[in-house]
Amino acid sequence: MIETGDETSLQRRQCQSHARGAALWLVTAGVCASLAGQVWAVEPKGMLETLHRHKFLSSSISDNGDENPYAVVVVPQNMGVLQQGDVLVDNFNNISNLQGTGTSIVRYRPSTGQTSLFAQVPQHLQSCPGGVGLTTAMAVLKSGWVIVGSAPSTDGTTATKGDGCLLVFDANGKQVTTWSGPTINAPWGNMAWTEQAGKATLFISMAGFGLPGPDVLDPATGLPVIRHQATVLRMQLSLPAGQVPVIENQTVIGSGFAQRADRDNFLFGPTGTALGPDDTLYVTDGLENSISAITQASTRADSVGTGHLVTQNGLLAWPLAMIMTPQQHLIVANGKNGQAVEIDARTGKQIYAHWLDADQAQSPPGNGDLFGLALTPDGKGIYYVEDDVNALLEGTP
Question: How far is residue 386 CA from its own chain's centroid?
Answer without folding.
Answer: 12
